[in-house]
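Retro notes (design track)

What went well: tokenization of the new backbones is finally stable.
What didn't: we kept losing track of which sequence belonged to which structure.
Fix going forward: every design gets posted as structure first, then sequence, in one message. First example under the new rule, 317 residues:
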């Protein structure tokens, strides 16, 4: 029996969505809908200080205005809620307990500043490869460090010296040796906030997601997540990582810099004009003319989407 396709949008509402967010949401919507599947909207607001509820509500209105509707999630409901990560702590705690029973979790007292200042190796993207500083602390040493630092330790997951590989639906084969290229990674921060890697695995599995479409900047996260799927005995989805949109001078779009934000675009373009231009950049609209999401379904094909990052030509928006 064929499994129903279930795609998802999983935005972090830390500001108004920009063209990069819309491009990824459009591809996720088209990929699922073209298979006759459903779409789930999940709000990734683990960091509630950066992601106030008003931003999440605005993001929902923006997606509806664009015609990128969802079948399950905020405002619609569904059997797998709640659909805000800030309300799903008990699910992450249960997964953490399963990992602790396997003896794979340990407390870590290293701050981010200490790791960046230390001689720990770094990846090309600047991420620290955790050197295992706290991996073998005794119970007595943990108590001593807790007294000395005065803070609750973070929790890390031990990783094997093993290459975790997969074939991305768009980017092709990818793999990493977790121990050498990542190191033991965080499950919960010292402030009690659960890490993205754990939360996204628990949520996608619980919500029946069969395909994850997201930016290429998250490609390197996937081996860690596949390792978690294995440890938690969960079925992983198919992954499709998409190129990032860049400004015409090569900068990454960001909410922080208000690059190509919908607050500005909405004053100048209709939803169909925005989607048509994005589909043109994605290779499945022959011109940059207006197209609704539904109108793009017939022309969308993954093999037409570039694999390299896409500079937005000056003057297109």
């Amino acid at each position: 029996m064929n499994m129903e396709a279930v795609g998802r949008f999983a935005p972090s509402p830390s500001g108004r969505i920009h063209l990069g967010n819309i491009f990824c949401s459009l591809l996720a919507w088209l990929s699922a809908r073209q298979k006759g599947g459903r779409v789930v909207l999940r709000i990734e607001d683990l960091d509630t200080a950066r992601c106030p509820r008003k931003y999440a509500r605005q993001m929902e209105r923006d997606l509806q205005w664009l015609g990128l509707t969802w079948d399950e999630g905020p405002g619609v409901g569904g059997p797998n809620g709640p659909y805000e990560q800030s309300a799903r702590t008990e699910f992450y705690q249960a997964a953490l307990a399963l990992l602790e029973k396997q003896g794979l979790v340990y407390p870590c007292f290293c701050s981010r500043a200490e790791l960046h200042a230390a001689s720990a190796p770094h990846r090309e993207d600047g991420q620290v490869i955790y050197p295992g500083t706290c991996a073998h602390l005794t119970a007595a040493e943990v108590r001593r460090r807790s007294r000395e630092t005065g803070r609750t330790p973070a929790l890390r997951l031990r990783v094997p010296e093993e290459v975790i590989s997969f074939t991305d639906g768009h980017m092709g084969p990818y793999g990493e040796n977790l121990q050498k290229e990542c190191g033991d990674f965080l499950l919960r921060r010292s402030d009690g906030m659960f890490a993205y890697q754990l939360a996204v695995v628990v949520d996608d599995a619980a919500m029946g997601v069969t395909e994850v479409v997201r930016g290429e900047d998250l490609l390197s996260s996937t081996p860690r997540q596949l390792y978690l799927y294995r440890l938690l005995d969960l079925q992983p989805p198919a992954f499709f990582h998409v190129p990032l949109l860049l400004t015409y001078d090569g900068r990454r779009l960001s909410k922080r810099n208000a690059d190509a934000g919908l607050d500005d675009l909405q004053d100048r373009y209709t939803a169909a004009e925005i989607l048509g231009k994005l589909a043109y950049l994605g290779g499945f609209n022959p011109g940059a003319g207006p197209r609704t999401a539904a109108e793009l379904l017939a022309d969308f094909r993954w093999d037409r989407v570039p694999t390299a990052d896409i500079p937005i030509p000056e003057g297109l928006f």
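Added context from the reviewer: The chain has a mean pLDDT of 92.
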